[in-house]
Amino acid sequence: MADCIFCKIIAGEIPSAKVYEDDDMLAFRDINPQAKVHVLVVPKSHFATLAEMNDAQAELVKKCMKKIPQIASSLGLSDGYRLIVNQGEAAGQTVHHLHIHILGGQNMGEKML
Ligand code: 5GP
Ligand code: ZN
Which fold has domain 5-104? Predict the structure, then answer.
């Protein structure tokens, strides 16, 4: 999608600190980290929310979820981590390309959830 920042990152038009990539997804460090480790996992198909997701995109999300333990392990998150998927404006979603936040590297106990 033309003006989607994550589509541009996937296309290599905007640089990112990549931590994992395959045909289905890209994982890169958040530019404004909210934890010591903050990585975004982004399926390589543009859709904003789960409500807009088609079956092929659901397969990509499944692949992302199955890959996240390996990505987390590569980031040293052996003690655990938190996943967040913001859905829409009220949740604070600012980039309208579905993405899974991986947050960790510290005790997350004082944050929401
Ligand atoms: P949301 O609030 O939509 O769930 O999360 C969007 C995230 O994308 C934010 O945490 C924000 O810091 C991150 N972000 C926005 N623009 C960029 C960018 O150009 N590069 C990277 N690496 N992260 C970005
Ligand atoms: Zn996009």
Answer: HIT family, subunit A (3.30.428)
